[in-house]
Design a protein that fits this description.
The structure is a single chain. The protein is mainly α. It has a single domain (3-360), classed as Amino acid/polyamine transporter I (Up-down Bundle). The chain has helices spanning 9-36, 40-62, 70-78, 80-112, 119-136, 138-163, 180-194, 200-203, 216-240, 244-247, 251-260, 266-296, 306-319, 324-341, 346-360. Helix 2 (40-62) packs antiparallel against helix 9 (216-240), helix 4 (80-112) crosses helix 5 (119-136) and helix 4 (80-112) runs antiparallel to helix 12. The longest helix is centred in the first third of the chain and has 33 residues, at 80-112. It is globular, with a radius of gyration of 20 Å. The two termini are 30 Å apart. 48% of the residues are buried.
Length: 361
């Protein structure tokens, strides 16, 4: 792969930050507030600190033979059969999670913008956009994200003006009313989102200056995403108190709508920006999972898998999690633990320990 076709470490960091924030700002606050009440911001801080061991494993594995694909690196570490199996499992895990994200993004669009539009139409539209982004590849998405991420940060700035115009700091203290166990349990959900930086394992051949910035890429992405999620929870608590998570599926929307009473259309503009982030996330996951599956099975043109895979994702998005309540319950009770016990947690950490032994040998 030529140097000109690669992305820089800064672009990779920005893509990973968008990957986390685009969906985390929508669903993580409600789930974390329900579990931790006014200690939700402290749970998010715990999650950010707990992500450091995961970041260490992602960084080390991505810079081990960085010009090789994930499959080849895993074959070097654990042998051909297990290496290909783990790489295929990781790719299928991304595709499996995509159907949930498609449903989540489509529900958001329908609730905010198009309540009369059939959900099938919205899911199909988001799927086509994601297919196009995956077809273009990470270089085009990175250039687009250079313009997008500042707009995403701008939405937080605008919302913070509305949230802190009439501060209610007493909603933030004491943060341990529900006990330490609930604070730690509430940190599991955002930790799974921060664990999405594991995509770096797929991205490493596409990053031109990976070795020089190997720690900075996942670390900066997690710190940026974690910091903005802490800010999000503080804004929600400061504006509405700890009970908003159990009342609204997307509590951050309420700040935009409250602020929108003074500036017409600001809430719709902010949500439009977030939906663009969801599309980029889906496109990245789709691109890397299909590229790796095509490499495992030695396909001459892996992109040929994109249309049928997206059609399958479209049907999966339609056939699961019929309501926002079901979506939140699934993410809280199942997906976070599944992700951290497999391809975002235990498996990368185990491979990291094998990598240490491999380096010594």
């Amino acid at each position: 792969m030529g140097q000109s076709s690669k992305i820089s470490a800064r672009q990779a960091t920005a893509l990973l930050t968008t990957l986390i924030l685009s969906t985390a700002v929508l669903v993580v606050p409600a789930i974390t507030l329900t579990r931790a009440d006014q200690g939700a911001w402290l749970s998010m801080l715990f999650a950010t600190l707990a992500a450091v061991p995961l970041i260490t494993s992602y960084s080390s594995l991505s810079t081990f033979a960085p010009n090789l694909r994930l499959t080849d690196r895993l074959i070097l570490l654990v042998g051909p059969l297990l290496g290909r199996t783990l790489s295929l499992g990781f790719s299928l895990f991304l595709l499996f999670t995509m159907s949930t994200v498609i449903r989540e993004g489509s529900l958001l669009v329908r609730i905010i913008f198009l309540p009369e539009t059939p959900l099938e139409v919205i899911i199909a539209g988001l799927s086509i956009l994601s297919l196009y982004g995956a077809w273009l590849g990470p270089q085009a998405l990175a250039r687009m994200n250079t313009l997008y991420l500042p707009l995403l940060f701008l939405t937080f700035f605008v919302l913070s003006i509305g949230a802190f115009s009439k501060p209610h700091w007493y909603f933030l203290w004491p943060p341990w009313e529900k006990g330490l166990s609930d604070l730690v349990a509430a940190a599991v959900i955002p930790l799974a989102w921060l664990g999405e930086t594991s995509l770096l394992l797929f991205m490493s051949p596409d990053i031109s200056d990976l070795k020089a910035h190997r720690w900075k890429i996942p670390l900066y992405a997690c710190l940026l995403a974690g910091g903005f999620l802490i800010l999000t929870l503080v804004m929600i608590l400061n504006t509405f108190g700890p009970n908003l998570g159990s009342l609204y599926a997307f509590p951050l929307l309420q700040i935009g709508r409250t602020f929108g009473e003074n500036i017409r259309g600001i809430d719709a503009l902010i949500m439009s920006i977030w939906v663009v982030g969801v599309f980029q996330k889906l496109a990245l996951w789709l691109h890397y999972s299909i590229q790796e599956i095509g490499y495992i099975f030695k396909l001459q043109n892996p992109k040929a898998l994109l249309p049928p895979t997206m059609i399958l994702q479209n049907f999966l998005g339609l056939g699961t999690l019929y309501s926002v309540g079901e979506l939140h319950s699934y993410l809280e009770r199942y997906w976070s633990y599944l992700a951290l016990s497999t391809f975002e947690g235990i498996i990368p950490v185990g491979l990291f320990l094998i990598w240490i032994r491999y380096n010594k040998r």
